[in-house]
Fold these 4 entries.
Entry 1:
Amino acid sequence: MKISVNWLKEYIPVDHTVEEMADKISLTGIESSPVRLGEELTDLVVGHITKVEPHPDSDHLKVCQVDVGESAEIQIVCGAPNVSVDQYVIVAMHGAHLPNGVRIKRGKLRGQESNGMICGLDEVGVPAKYMPKEFENGIYVFDEPQTPGTAVYDLLGLKDQMIDIDITPNRADTLGMHGAAWEIGATYNEKPVFKKPELDSGKIKDMNDVTVDVKVKDLVPDYLIRELKDVKVTKSPLWMQRRLWNQNIRPVNSIVDAANYVMIEYGQPVQVYDLDKLENSSLTVKMAQDGDKLQLIDDEKALNHNDIVIASGDKVLGLAGVINGSNATVDENTKNVLLEAGVFDGASVRKTAQRHDLRSDASSRFEKGVDNGIVSEALTRVAQLITNDSPVEAISQEIVGNFTKAEPIVIKGSIAHINHLMGLNLSVTEINNIFDRLGFETQLVGDEVTVTIPTRRWDMTIEADLVEEVNRIYGYANLPNTLPAGMETRGGYSPERELGNKLRDILLGEGMDEVINFSLLNKQEVEDFNTIGSEYTKLLHPMTEDHEYLRNSLIPGLVRNIAYNQARKNNDLSIFEQARVFDRLTGQDRPNEIPYISGAISGNVVEDSWNSEPRKVDFYYIKGIVEELLSFTNADANFTFVATDQYSNMHPGQTAQIRANDQVVGLVGKLHPDYQKEHNIDDTFVFELNVIDLFNLNKKNVKAQSAPKYPSVTRDLAILIGNDIENGQIINDIFANGGKYLHDVNIFDVYEGKNIKPNHKSLGYHLVFLNPDNTLTDEEVEKAFAHVKDSLVQKFNVEIR
């Protein structure tokens, strides 16, 4: 909202610079910045065109003689199609400065001397989309005679000083000049004075040609209209037009401009209709039906049952609180006008505006809230402005569709408590003075104060709001500097977050790079890796189709990162993300947020060098990283990797579930070749772990142990086994039968091919035996080794080699 200082002077005395005012308002909690329009403009004056002749060497240029208040007229060559004799226009003199660094110099145009330029509004700083439509393609012409040579800045508001306030949603009262005057006045201890609008009683008639039916009274607590009969639609006065275009509103005509002017003045949107275009002279405020259409000037919107509409018969005139259609617009042929002012449910207006992409000045105000105490006054003000500028034969009384009496809010508080919370010792008089500056009424009984809040400040409801207002107006900078009292709270992370941070540090130590992705995915992505079997959580109003659903896995985001980098020839990637996924159970309204950690590796993990060959990532490399992570969880659990083909977008032969005591805590493996091709990425291996599941595992009691005093004994075992037997099964069985001194087992050889039975493989294992308390004998080791071999032969039908 831009507050015009010249306009503000009508309500309160203003003798401060716009910069000083913006700074002081910002200190009260409303961010403000100064705006000085047209600072670069110079030498712009009113000119009176006394003679126009065709240019002798051009079809469209004209040679004009212009009176600019000097002793002699000056000649200016102009190409505007609307230039003619006896016009009062804007003239940029020789040496004048215009926006964007343009400077006017005298010269010749096709042989004819030109001593300046006759300007359009867009050439002097008014954006073309906000200036009157009749001057879009030509020069600006004053409606009334002006004194030649007079500077045009004040006439057109070209150098208006403004304060641009960036309000918070709870301070929508400052979206009108009246509310802003109260706020700025309180800052300077000045109470604004407003003139109450009055109508010519001789023109008010007891007539009611329109029937009004508000079918959704719970969503439309106030709805008032007035009829204006035998109106002559004209141009609005220049003072109103310049205030409108400085507020980024295009002047249209005396009726529409009056409504827009009151919206800026009061913060209350008002709509106007051509009464003769209504079907059966009726207005109905109701919910739209699916399939209803709203015809706009250059578009058509399909409505649904969630939209509040203003209708007349079968015609939809507009979306309540958002925009009017083209069915009943007021134009130069309008004879009878209907004015409408109401209060519409903010949430409904906001959702409708978003749904149809029709945000407007009116919807912005209804979304944040309007003062239902000034609806009637705003309606009267519009009628007053219209009758001031346009001939009107008769005005109806207010016609009430729905009315809710505006009740002021009453808040009780304690002077001592207010001072205690502020850390001050203000007197009763000082606090009452602050409330009075804000326009609040107070009653004091002992220490208890009762404050009556006007309806324009609907954001205030509790005593804490009173404290905030006293703080703001007294000045935050004036509050004493004190140290906080009370117990100190030790900061830190939750144990779950500590584990996540530890895992993150491990991956950073492994040389992986951390990424951060959006938590929103498209539908295909949430379907691709729904490994947890979650219900999908869709946003009501997504930004785009690519951001419709809350993620149920981190892998799709990592795949996007891989694809983006590989498309730019960055092929060797090792990335991870630590974030939350959203798991929603069937019938559950809100999803559970679960911390996960996931990684993706693609390309070479060892670079080509003079002393090493390049090495591509494989399943065992990424499995090793996962095992490293799991070792740092300190979990008293048996982690296993179980081959699986249940994930459709993972390679069926190179994917495993990660289990802790048979509980699935994650997955690791290679992306399916078809999935990789679809996303234009090379071979990529991924893993994903549920941090909460890992945290909830029982913890080991770690004890320090001295280094073994006695040597270990090793045995190597080579076996021939069927391809359907997994290495994990063999190792588990070796540990189960190796006795209490079996310390470690690892596989050192895998062979398939020539000289091996079909569908078989040869595996080599290294067994380490260790007795920490004594030296092992060959007899003890051989006995344990024999048990291992016998068990393997019996259970897996292996051949010992």
Entry 2:
Amino acid sequence: MIREPFNDGWRVTRRTSIFELFTAGDGAGAVSVTLPHDAMLAGGRSADGSDGSHTGYHRPGAWRYDKEFEVPASWAGKRVSIEFEGVYRDAMVYINDAFAGQWANGYSTFHLAADPYLRYGRTNTIRVEAQAYKDSRWYSGAGIHRPVHLLVGDLLHVTPTGLRVTTPQIDDELAVAAVATEVVNEGTGTRTVEVLLEVRDGDGEIVAADHAPLTVLAGERAIVRRRAYIRHPALWSVEEPNLYTATVRLTDAGGQVDEARATFGIRSVSVDPIRGLRINGATVKLRGACVHHDNGPLGSAAIARAEERRVRLLKDAGFNAIRSAHNPLSTAMLEACDRLGMLVMDETFDMWTVSKTDDDYARRFPQWWERDVDALVAKDFNHPSVIFYSIGNEILEVGTPHGARWGRLLAERIRAQDPTRLVTNALNGMMAIMDQIPALMAQGSGAQADDAQTQAPDAQAQANAGGPAVEGGFNDLLDGMGALTALPEVGERIAESAAVLDVVGLNYGDSRYLTDHQTHPNRVMVGSETFPTLIDRYWKLVTEHGHIIGDFTWTGWDYLGESGIGRPTYPGEGPSFGAPYPWLTASTGDLDITGRRRPISYYRETVYGLRRTPYLAVQRPEHREHPFRPKAWAWSDSVASWTWDVPAGTPVTVEAYTDADEIEFVLDGTTAARVPVGTDKAYLATAELPYQPGTLEAVAYRDGAETGRCRLLTAGAAARLRLTPDRPHLGADPQDLAYLDIHLVDEHATINPISDRTVTVDLDGPATLQALGTARPSTEEPFHTTSCTSYEGHALAVLRPTGGEGPVTVTVRADGLPPATVTIEVRQPGGTVSGTATRHEPARS
């Protein structure tokens, strides 16, 4: 089938009732957009009239997308359908004002037959309506946030998700690629075609081929299976993500009828409680990052280049696995994981039959879950990066018999379609005993919690990491989560739900790692969601025990909504959950929303054993009277800077992260302190030093010998702008992007983080300014204007091509500084190209 992008020429507006159209006019206020697009982001934020801190104070609403498109007369007698990769939420689709279909879930790929509603040889219209209102616990975005494609082909064709490849037999000399192709004949007569299979390696060389005839009756679906034998296969792994492409062509006496293509990898996956998770026979420990679906300044728009950039930066930071939290990943992100070598736990739902917000998916789940599970498997099937399907996140009913039954239904639905992957569920033990928590809180740190801490030593450490166990308010409840999760009642209540799974995912459940291994020695576990601040303890458990296969931190990348859950809080500021307007981001994550690594990222890299050079950070001196220690989702309130607006001699606390024995802190060449590592926390050394402008160094020693050093310089006054594009050119495809880092630097090119000012960006050429912003966690500035205030000396501009070729000149101005320019070339063909899901090509005569 011809598979064409259907992303240009759309207009979006707020949806109005039929009665309002009489006064406002049809399409009043509509704005031209290119998909993917986030309608909610442009709607603005407010303290009132929004869904509150959950969604970052963005306004809810309902939106309407319209597009005109030409339908040639030659399409009559063809099969025409439309593929939506994701519309948030409750999508209603109309073609030429006739209802064509709907989909409830905002993250599932779905296909609609268009031909019953088309007018051939004329201009046609399509309308998509979507809404978002009190249905998410984080920023959801809204609208057509993932790409759309138009599919046109013969009445006999490969179905849109009908090419599936598995590799059931693999050794060094030979791999078997089992290719199953679903063909449908929607014509009125029996058809016989030749099915030609071709497998190419990463260099484009044919490594296997086969052919067979196929007869399909009118109205029939048939599956043709062929086995390709690939000699000396190049296996797919995190370190070497080798890919192959399978192409299936249907031909008859008149020539080619249809073609479908899928990219796949050759790899094996197994798991057991002794050797853990193995990829191609080698044990792999998962260095995992939970990620939400939004792209920071781009909102929820899943533009291919943005998805790829996130994967690349997460891998550069030391992660080898991603958990989609808590909805299926986009196809573009899966393709990036395939290309770059990132393992994936792809998740279905955040709720089943019990709601977490006023109007969430639970109301649709009983009628839609089967279709959404099928859509997940169809999307993921050929992606070697996907090794887990997660059937849910912190599902409220998993501690009940009926909840366990639902888990079994979901798991078996997946296994019936794809038995090659592991099934897990992110269980939160605290959710399983929600009915008991009020009594436990009333008891304070009573006997039950004490007994649980005795049974699970890690629980006491988790409780002590932030404060008292199970008393006080919501934050204290979180601090005592380890003690609650360790209770025997939790193990009893989740036993049936856990028995459904291949791997038991535990959210904040490390207190069960060892006790459950004693009672269930065949159980394999993964930390499906964990506090970032406790990675030193978690990773020790992961590396020392075969049945614990990895850890997924919350989160790898900061996100919009759940505002302020990771912010350090000081006296008088109130709890971190539900931070007041204008808080925007969760303020947690190893990387901020612009992609810059935060100090916790370097600490984690050190814990993983991937970093030998020490890392140096400084706690903000303005809060010295109330030092903040790592707690739950909040790291210490530190930044990598030795530029502070405080008098010389002001005491400041400095931190160094290292796997060495000692750290020497050196001020302008003179030793200011030499301290052991790990006194208060593993891999961490701290000291209090007097601030003085100049040079601060951290020198690491092991057994008395220097093993590395890190240096911070005091910046002078901001003198100029430094513009750093992430690439010298980009493709003309609007799915490509260029990211431009803007820094305020002194005359020696040192970033000045305390001289923030308004930054304005102008473009000239075939691109548009898709977004401009910073990682400032609390701000009223939108991302879709041409000006913003820098944050810690940094801003990020995102450029999106408009389809033409030529140079794009970017001019940046900042108050009091000379303007700066940079030129980025836009070239054909486009840059990042989607290529690993099933792709259909035009039939050729």
Entry 3:
Amino acid sequence: MLKQSKGCKVMVVVTTRDEGIANEISIVRPYNLPQLSDEMCWQIMSQKSKFETRDDKERLEPIGRDIAKKCKGVALAAQSLGHILRSKSYGEWNSVRTNHIWNLSTSTDASSSHEVLGSLLLSYNLMPPYLKLCFAYCAIFPKGHKMIKDELIHQWIALGFMEPSSIFSYWQLGESYIVQLLEMSFLQHSKAVVEWYDTNKIVTLFTMHDLVHDLARSVMADEFDLAGPNCRYAWNIDCTKPLKSSKTSPEKLRALNIVGAGNRGPPMFHRDAIVPAKYIRVLHATVNSNRLFVSISQLKQLRYLNAPNIHGPVDFGCIGMLQKLNYLNLRHCEELSALPDSIGEMEGLMYLNLSGCPNLKELPDSFADLKELVYLNLSNSDNVLGLPNALADLTKLQQLELTACRTLRGRPDVIINLTELRYLRLSGCMHHIFDSSSTDQTESFIDSICRLPNMEHLDLSFNGHPLISIPENASCLRKLVLHGCRQVARLPECVAKMDRQILFGLLPLFSITTDDGKCYSNLGFLEHVNPHKLNIKKLENVKSPEEARSVRLIEKHRIEEMSLMWNPQAERSVDDMELLRELVPPTTLQKFEIYGYISASFPDWVMSIGNYPPNLDRMEMYGLPNCKSLPPLAQLPPNLRVLTLEEMECLEEWNTTYCSGEDGVNELMLCKLEQVNIHFCPKLRITPHLPRAASWSIRGSDNVLISWAESVSHNDASSSFSGVSTTLIVGRSKVPLHQWRLPHHIPALIALHTYNCWDLTSSPEITWALQSLKSLKLDSFAQSKLSEWVGELASVQQLTINRCMMLEELPGNMRQLKQLQSLKLNICCSLRQLPLWLGELTSLKKLIIWKCSAITTLPNSIQQLTNLQELEIHGCPNLEQWCEAEENKPKLAHIEKKIWQSTIFSPKRAATPASCRCSQLRWPLLRKKIRK
């Protein structure tokens, strides 16, 4: 059966049978999805599965890459499978790869991407049962619907999808389920929005990708369709019609969402709109009708009631009859004036939202009996009485919202006794709590709140008076909100220790802003912070040097890492050099990064850098377009380990010495350098000597390669490189290899990696400079032949030729590489055969051939490689077939580890026919019934 589906070209419904049960699954053909390469899908899977941390990753990688290919370029598929495979064994990875869900046919179109749903379906089948229930339930929401986290979890709780735990609460279990679905990409974060109806509270929203939604509906089958006989969960039911008119037996319903018909006043609510659903557990009603509450009183099994925005005269007394409720949301019910005394009999009530109910005058005495209450919101219900007595006994409260609440005057002690409290919102109500405007009172109160053992989030926003004074122990909070507090009497340095969002934004990243018409920015807010890391961006917004001076960075002795960032293209009020003069770092600084600085010169402290951050071990300079010379880095004490210079088009010189003593002797410093990165600095030359470093990365900076003397005394150079084994990485070079002079100055060069270099022709001189090489990697060069110099590097032990699409043959003199132990050929599409002399590489231990599809056979001389321990072949179908042929197996019998077709062979195991190597999985049950 074919039918159109939003977000899809074609939906094919395939019916299968397992133990006599018909199961329908929707095989989806996506369109307009970003198509990623197989490699990118594998990278996503690798990250999601934590592949790099596994001990068996070499065995798993071919399998993983095969699975990634089945994702057909869809990131969602790679994400979900990657998460599922995280804790799976080698055998389970292989079972996923060979599962015959991949073999389902979607249409006569051979290019149809049925594997996309296959990956999601596999991910679903591998879920634990409890998670399947929670995921499938999300099918009741329309495509694109934004699910509210709190509501979704409480609906799961109400429907009994969670097993009781002696360790974790229902809420903790629900949050863990959300995390698992997010990690699988079965749920996705929607951008948090301000819910104005909920007193500006920022809520967490989730959405579901269309493909995932289609899967959820396929799994749910007819359990969400009111037109069918098995409906259990119904969405957007018209309240003007009787429920019994449906084909569904109303007694089967467990969740119901009802709406009014139109927006012209209260709808006509049919008396049988919900009453027949007498076993319902979840009711979400956006219906403004008194008859709704008359009907609700008969739903004795109801556990979740969300009925906001009820206007007009309503009798709320019936709510007290719903003794099994665990969730009750009556926000913005303007006519709610009192709660029934019987509310205290709701022994399982966990969530209660009474915000925006201005006529609510009093809480009954029985309110204190709600011992399981975890969430209470009375924001903007600002006339309610009896709150202090009620709060005193709600010992399990974790979230309390009291924005604009007026009825706690003189009784702040009831809050500071709530030891389980994690989230407290006192926005705009501090002056209602305290009898006077004493700063001491507020500081003592806030201090007591911060001492609560579980407190994480404190919102004191929009409290204009009394003065807010933040105590030292506020550092224990994860989030402190002071928006709109114009009178903060005290803000200690300790707030900088907070891990997450605090005061004015995110630390360590601090973005400088300024309001139109003001003569100052928010930079001064950093005066009292002293974090370990501080990244200041948008420095172009600073209005005056005095602002920077007031921050007194030099006195902040906790800062170890600091970044100063300008937008190079933005207009400035202050010259970069004038501003940088006031941003002197403390002596504790270990890592310093400067980006987007457009002045040509540096202030005095930078030019005397050795006197300021003596512990600096990492310096990075990016995007300095007008800088012609570096600060005297050689003056730094010998601690600098990493130096990065990038996108400095005008930079001409890096002097690596400094003048020592009265006789003016030049000394070479920077003796602890480990890594030097010089990228896109086309004019730069290093003089007079090359510092020693374990790793050099030169990209788009050819002058560094060629601006050296043609010869060098190796005795002179080797003294500075004593004990250093060096790696040189060169990328995007436009000059031929034989013109490179830099290698002559690195006598300890043991590894060379080139990529996107135009010309790798050599000369005897450069070959001599590379005689100590142990590892050589040639990446992405366009020549059809490999230069002869490669075969002249007698000391090379590892050789990798990667993404050399035009390479047709290996040079004959490579037979001289008698020390070669590892040979890797990757994506060399034009390479048609391996030479017969391959057998002369008698030290070879590992041979890896990836995606060289033109290679169809191995030379017979492979039998001469008696030291060969590992042979890995991937993406070479003809070559893999050659290896599988019975007549060729004896030629490979001496190799201990052989990997192709994502299978590992070992002579210790009996040979297994190819047709039997992959376990055949029984077709899984595709739809699990959701029971009450």
Entry 4:
Amino acid sequence: MRRIGWMAAVSLAVAGPAVAQADAPSQRALDRLADTLDYRFEVVDNRPACPADVANCFLATITLTIPDNLPAALRTGSGLSLYFSFVNPLARVESDLFEHSAINGDFQRLTLKPGAVLRPGSRHVIKLWGVGSHLSRAVVMPNAYLAAEGRRARVIASTRDTIDPDTGLPALRFVAPMTDAARLTTKSDDDKTVWLTPERAFAENAERATAPADGIVILPRPGQAEQHDGASVDLTKGVRLTLTGVERAGIAPALAALGVREGGGLPLAIRVDPTSGIAPEGYRLEARADGVAITAADAAGASYGLRSLAQQAAFEGGKMRPLTVADAPLYPHRGLHLDLGRNFHGRDQILKLVEAMAAYKLNKLHLHLAEDEGWRIEIPALPELAQIGSVRCHDPEEKRCLLPQLGAGPDGAPGVNGYLTTADYVAIVRAASARGIEVIPSIDMPGHSRAAIVAMERRHDRLAAAGKSAEADAYRLIDPADTTTYRSIQNYSDNTLNVCIPATYRFVDTVVDALAQMHKTAGTPLKTFHLGADETAGAWVNSPACKAMIADNGGDARNLTPRFIERVATALAAKGIRAGGWSDGMGHTDPARMPANVLTNIWGVLHTGAIREAHDQLNRGWDVVLSIPDLGYFDMPYAPHPDEGGYYWASRGVDSHQVFGFMPDNLPANAALIATTSAEPQAIEDKPVRAPGRRIAGIQAQLWSETVRTDAQVDYMLFPRLLALAERGWAPARWTPPYDPGQSYAWQDPRVDRAALAAGWRDFAGRVAVQFGQLERLNIAYRVAPPGARIVGGMLEANSAFPGMAIEYRVRGGNWTRYKGPVAVQGPVELRSRSRDGKRSSRTVMVSPP
């Protein structure tokens, strides 16, 4: 669903052999070293001459500077460990002091070489030969820490995940700037990617010229909307509400969003009539000086009518021009996926996103509740899942918590750790349901399941110690006699449920039943359960429990994952629940063994598998949702630049313009607008063709959270490009050529109406600028894009991606000045944009005279 091998999360540890507590340094000495040890990380070269035994390498370094006041007890490193994280597999580590060995996943070890001594004031450079590439500072993990036997582990102060006060985002001050474009931008000459410098951004912004919104500002854009002359529609004095065919509770959140007093003023009539001929979730809005009328076929449509009214009324200060709207969504599935497994994001953040989803007419919330790195939902019958599986801390034996992957640090502190209680989850489902949003819980299996496996091993240990062997085995998810050696994409050796044992299916039933009960308590049934089903490693080959099942499936253990999916999907169907999964796992199943009602998320990259998977699974009659990373993975960076956050295995840049331009109804046509990950134009063939009458169910944004540790980062990575996805899920991309089976498309293919795209973008960008104020009212810290800028003839020129963004500039070291137009400057100039409310800024960029 999201990774390729070189982006597997990796950690590094410096550790001496286990020693008795008496030989360990004192807590005071350990604390002082953690406070004073200087730790620096640098990406040196993405195109180095690799060592003879290392292929596809890059070179990074960690530089440790030992403090001058190093206590004598620490100079031999006896009992001392240093743990830190990294985001690529390590092929070789070279150091004058340390030896390297892998532990698991992104947790690894360097041990002090025999006879090696740490000297006060000394400086040590550790060379890390990683596999793949390291193209962004943002994928460096924070919170390196020191530990010793019997002592409390301490984060090295210089690596703490500090927050930049201007941007509100992690600063990663221990990571060296990446400035050498020749060595750091690409892996090879075949990669045509260039960094988005201020000069290039200026040209890009100018080409996509935008203007402030004027007229109808509703987002997503309605199917039909028209303003009229005449007396204004005055909402400032409140409304007199009358309801027909709908209870107030069915529209309450949307009514609250309108933000006007009730009990007097303008008549507001809302009628819900299933026989009205209006499409599901659609509405008709008539706003005149003598009153407002909204008609819909369901409560969702009535709510969307109110949301549209609220946006337009806010733009016009509560006194609107008369307006008529006839509107309905293009697709029934308009989704947002949020990964809570890698790094936790809690109830308040999710509730905030639920309200934002409703504001922009998104209707599916896909909550990824479990991963290798964390279990995030309370299951009362299995308390260890939340108690142990939700926390990462310093506990090498994992008796109390999971290994501290992804720079979680040693303390198990809130933030990246945590889980939703049953009450939290019920509150989320209730809030979502009240806004017409279906919550789709996801528990990834049989791969990506390490948190569950470890937690259930601790349950087994507790009950076995009490002499309850049968109860202990009831939910054990592994075959203890299995000697299979494997590595998952994320470099884990033990993250896959054993699909051949009854305990696994008992576990699935218990978890699903618990989730179904929570939905029932919330007053809305569990309709869809997403089982992941992706990226299953080469497990079970040597599992005695799987011997017969492997034999029954052609002697190939790889066939066991499809059998697992088919069995779970069938069991879900028997409970009245639709099964969902990621397209790679779902595509290997036998359709004859699957229920008819199936949801599949297509996560193949546009140029390397999206069309094959989407059309194949459409032709099976399944509900296909496009989750294509080039357009829908919002953990990818906004732009190709080392200071932009996110992983980059699928795209070096997914900006709002790229998302807005997506053509869901003609996937091959996207080759006209989107190049490969290496920025190379490449044609896309329509193979296999889409069968007549088949149409996608919708589109979905995904935010995976490996690099997203704070709620502010969630907001930054989602907005404003989630608004572009909301537009594409609701309104047609009018530049799309009609789908013609078997037709291939090439870069800048003339059949794609680029003039219509340009006009659509200008209109959309203006409407987005209007929404920044609404996002701020929702406390959403949307991305403030750095300005484009250039210096020509001694004059500084600057522009922005969206109209109306404030731009500031300064000569380095000077005071910030508001940019109002071309201005004479001398020497390099720094620039930044500011949020609409002035509370946050973009990252700072610099331009120099040519």
